[in-house]
Structures are given as structure tokens and as C-alpha cells.
Amino acid sequence: MLDNGFKGKKKFDFGKWITGGNSKIYLILMIVVFVFLLFALKTVIKMHQDNIDNENGEATSEDVNNDITEEVTESESNYVATNMSYCIKINKSQNFAVIYQMDENQEYTIVVKAFKVSVSEDASVGETFISRKALWWKVSDTSYCRYASKLDNSEVLYSAAYYYNETDNSLNKNSYNNIGNASLDGSIHMTVSNAKWIYENCGINTPVYILDNFDLDPGVTLEEFETISSGYRDPTDTK
């Protein structure tokens, strides 16, 4: 027999709890849970977007690097000549160049070298200057040139073309044999020895004059140039 003072355990009525006075507490809890889930979802989405952005950023960096190598290869020069005692004159119509040295009156009158080059028909006529140097210059995916001296007008003084980067026995003999005629692929080509001489002796800001035509100074003759019938090495490349 149960003690009259004892009361049995009362069954919890969840439905009554919701609709009763606890409904406000329940609503607040639901809001808190919803806000937490929303915050967690936003965090996951942001992390996913950051990963995508990082991947895109890496791809963009690669694209930028590829764009750069369209112009200059990784072997960009650490050596920059500081000599400012020379100037270069280029005859566009007759495809030759003359290098002058400054005399005691600070005028460029002393002829140092005169040689055949290959000038692009699109080369801009006028005064410019050397603005950059590179050991190898990428012209296209299958064309690289050595001892490049970039001009401020976007033209480049460099060797005949090579098929492969940093491979001096991959000379394009058609490009080499074309020296003395209008350039086949833009800018201004010459033998390796002459491109190297400019690279090593003419400093940044050396003045360069591209002219439609001018006469050689009296007594000045162009260096001899001979075409090649075979081989993949510039015959003037003595290193």
C-alpha cells in the first residue's frame, strides 16, 4: 500500500511544453541554432572560395610568367655595360650598322665597327636608346636570339635566330643567311659576334639612331659576311 504522502513521477508533456510558457525559450533556442548553422555554412563557403581564388591566383601567376617569357627568357643578363662612349647608327634601307666612339670633343666621330644587319621593315625610324639586356631573347616558341639589347622603341638588337633556348648549336641558318637583307621576323638581327660586342660594350642608355638611309664615312667598309650552307652554329661564335 502506497504512502499517501508519496506522489508518482509525472510524465513530461513535450507538446504542452512547447505551447506553454516555454515557447519563448524554445523560439530563442531555435534562432540561436539557426544563426549558428548559417554562420557555419558561410564559413565553409568562404573557405571553399578562398581555395578557388588561390588556385586562380597561381594560374594567373603562371600566365604572367608565360607572358614575360614571350619577351625575355630566364637567362636575363646580370651584366650591364656602363660604357657610354658609343653610339649606334643603323641604315634601315641598306641593312647595315655603324658604331661610333666619342672623340675628345664629346662628339661621335670615331668609327669602331661597321657591319651588315637585318632590319625589320616595320622598325621605327628615329632616335632611341638601349633600355634592357638579355643573354637570350624569346621571339616565339621556336625562335630565340642571343645577346639582346632592347631599345626603348621596342626594337631589339640581337643575333640571328636559334631554334632552342640556351642552345648555341641550334642556329636557324635561314635567319643567319638573311643578314644584310630585310628581317624575316622583326627587329634587328646580326651575327653573334657583333651582337655580343654591343651587349658587352654599349651601356644602358647608349643612343641608337635608326635612319632610312645614310652613307658610310670615307674609307669605312663593312665587315665581310659569308653565308653558310650547313651546320647549326654561328661561324662568328668563338666564345
Protein model, in words:
The protein is an alpha+beta fold and 239 residues long. The chain has two domains: 14-69; 86-211, Beta Barrel (L,D-transpeptidase catalytic domain-like), CATH 2.40.440. It has four helices and ten strands. It has helices spanning 14-19, 23-69, 173-177, 192-201, and strands at 86-91, 96-102, 108-116, 118-119, 126-140, 143-151, 156-159, 161-162, 188-190, 207-211. Strands 1, 2, 3, 4, 5, 6, 7, 8, 9 and 10 form a ten-stranded mixed sheet that branches. A hairpin with a 4-residue loop joins strand 6 and strand 7. The radius of gyration is 37 Å and the shape is elongated. The N and C termini lie far apart (118 Å). The model is unreliable at 1-6 and 56-74 (pLDDT under 50).
What attributes characterize this protein structure?
2 domains; alpha+beta; 4 helices; 239 residues; single chain; 26% strand; L,D-transpeptidase catalytic domain-like; disordered N terminus; cell shape; ten-stranded mixed β-sheet
Identify the overall geometry.
Answer: elongated
Question: Mean pLDDT across all residues, rounded?
Answer: 83
Instruction: Tell me the fraction of residues in β-strands, as a range.
Output: 25-35%
CATH fold-type name of the largest domain: L,D-transpeptidase catalytic domain-like
Give the domain tally.
2
Total strands: the figure is 10
Show the helix and strand layout.
Elements (H helix, E strand, L loop, with lengths): L13 H6 L3 H47 L16 E6 L4 E7 L5 E9 L1 E2 L6 E15 L2 E9 L4 E4 L1 E2 L10 H5 L10 E3 L1 H10 L5 E5 L28
Parallel strand pairs: 1-10, 7-9
Antiparallel strand pairs: 1-2, 2-3, 4-9, 5-6, 5-10, 6-7, 6-8
GO biological process, one term: cell wall organization
GO molecular function, one term: transferase activity
Keywords: Cell shape, Cell wall biogenesis/degradation, Membrane, Peptidoglycan synthesis, Transferase, Transmembrane, Transmembrane helix
